[in-house]
Amino acid sequence: MNARLILLALLVTGCTITHRSQDYACTTQADCAMGRTCSGGFCVVNGSQIDAPLHIDAPMHIIDADLCPAACTSCDVASKQCTIDCTDSTSNTGCTGPVVCPAGYNCDIKCDVTNACRSNVNCTNAASCIIECSGSGSCRGLTCGPGSCDVQCTGQNSCRTVDCSTSCACDVNCAATGSCSDTVTCPFGCDNGLGCSSQFSAECSTCN
Predict the structure, then answer these.
(1) Strand, coil or helix: 160
(2) At 92, is the secondary structure helix, strand, or coil?
(3) Cβ atoms within 10 A of the Cβ of 81, count?
(4) Quick one: which of 12, 58, 96, 141 has the most CB atoms within 10 Å?
(5) Contact between residue 173 and residue 153 where contact means Cβ atoms under 8 Å apart
(6) What is the dihedral of CA 124, 127, 130, 135, to 10 degrees?
(7) In this structure, are strands 121-123 and 140-144 parallel, antiparallel, or unpaired?
(8) Mean of the pLDDT values across residues 46-52?
(9) In sequence order, which residues have a C-beta less than 8 Å from that of residue 128 and are 6 or more positions away?
């Protein structure tokens, strides 16, 4: 084989090899041979792009920030909206244990099952909470934080012990027979008999 054919074979072979070698990895220009430039962590031929396709060294990982918090039956992460539906026994087992609104979320907590949410409902770190206590005997030990809190006690004998004393706006509607039978603590001057109202004065509705 003459020199011209050998050269042609080498050129063809060089054009068909597309894998990237760690032999061309670099951190500074000094790591590269003459005629190559350190670019993107690899020594490339001057004036060209990286001369091989990228290799994926590890599998893609799901971004945890895109997942609903475990407490939520469903949610919208972008707008920080969380629904906790006690009728969905697959994810909340009927809310027989403590129910906690994730920090910074606006929660809609549906205690619509008999005796749901009787092991405390905690909204102390929530942006806001709407708590629907329509199940008979539902909701005991409800605690709201500085966000707005709306508690609808429409289930018979629901809402035993509610504390929204630090809320910027609190409404506790004791509509059903036997509801709010224990202490309901409202922001100062915002109680309306058994429950609370954010409508009494400007001091009862101070949320930004």
Answers:
(1) strand
(2) helix
(3) 17
(4) 141
(5) yes
(6) -40
(7) parallel
(8) 52
(9) 106, 107, 147, 148, 149, 150, 207
